[in-house]
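Dear Dr. H.,

I hope your travels went smoothly. While you were away I took the liberty of generating a structure for the chain from your last submission, since the lab meeting agenda had it listed for discussion. I wanted you to have the full record in hand beforehand rather than looking at slides cold. The sequence, exactly as received, is reproduced here:
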Amino acid sequence: MNTLQQQLINRMQEKNLSAAELERKAGLKMSAVRNIIKGQSKKPSAESLIAISQVLECTIEDLFEVERAGSSGHVPMQKKEDPSEPVEDLKFLAKTADKVIKLLSEADKNCSFEEVFFFIQETYMYSLGSSYPEVDVAFAKWLISKN
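The corresponding predicted structure, in token form, is as follows:
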């Protein structure tokens, strides 16, 4: 069982959701989540992962619980901030917002406030774990292009 499958199962249990309930709340077609859990859907779409992460109240990265190698084996990535906790690095958040808004303008995207804040939050949280103190522009571009 891969990390995504295990994370889905764990987070569904935490939220007391069945696969069918998660699919319905996420607006996915029947069996979408079950196919991921069974390993039949090896590369779920970004749209599906975004919908799932929103229902499970986590980031996409949380679903994959990415690790990177350290000098003594695998070390978990830096803990990402909980959206309900106070932001500790306001300058980095502002820098992330500036980059995301610039990318949205360049892509000529018309987004709602909710979508803009989603892009900023996901990019901020992802960047904390992968490229902090730099904004992961490649991730932001990918996220924007998939939505």
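Two observations you may find useful: The CA atoms of residues 52 and 58 lie 9 Å apart. The chain is about 60% helix and 5% strand.

With kind regards,
E. W.
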